[in-house]
Design goal:
It contains 3 helices and 7 strands. Strands 1, 2, 3, 4, 5, 6 and 7 form a 7-stranded antiparallel sheet that branches. By secondary structure, the chain is α+β, with helices and mostly antiparallel strands. It has a single domain, classed as Alpha-D-Glucose-1,6-Bisphosphate, Chain A, domain 4.
Length: about 130
């Protein structure tokens, strides 16, 4: 139930123009909704969304990237986000500094890639959502 509340907040913020990422008219509504939901789930307490690129449609995929700044270690961040994405996504650590999470839906395969990008101001994580037809 709590995750449904987060989705509703993300949708409301997008509708009134306070959402973090820019929207493109070339991507589907389902992709936008999932991207908004994942922005919340990949920005745990104590972290903040730094920037977000526009969602794009490329050949047979839809993609969007954003960056999250956190004071957590890579291990703590990746573990917290992996837990937040379960059970919808299955996550596996590809070794430092990458975690891949995947989800299959009727007609689509979704992949979330988390990549550690250490910086002087803390840990920056590049998050990339990609959807492909199955």
């Amino acid at each position: 139930m709590f995750s449904h509340f987060k989705v509703l907040i993300a949708m409301a913020l997008t509708v009134i123009g306070l959402g973090g990422c820019r929207r493109s008219d070339t991507v589907g509504e389902e992709f936008v909704a999932e991207s908004n939901r994942l922005q919340l789930l990949t920005t745990p307490a104590g972290a903040r969304l730094l920037d977000c690129g526009a969602a794009k449609r490329e050949s047979f995929s839809e993609t969007q990237e954003w960056h999250v700044l956190t004071t957590r270690s890579w291990h703590e961040y990746a573990e917290a986000v992996s837990r937040a994405l379960q059970p919808a996504y299955r996550c596996s650590s590809e070794g430092r500094p990458t975690t891949l999470c995947s989800r299959s839906l009727p007609g689509d395969n979704l992949q979330v890639e988390l990549v550690s990008e250490p910086s002087a101001s803390g840990l920056v994580v590049r998050v990339r959502l990609e959807a492909h037809p199955d």
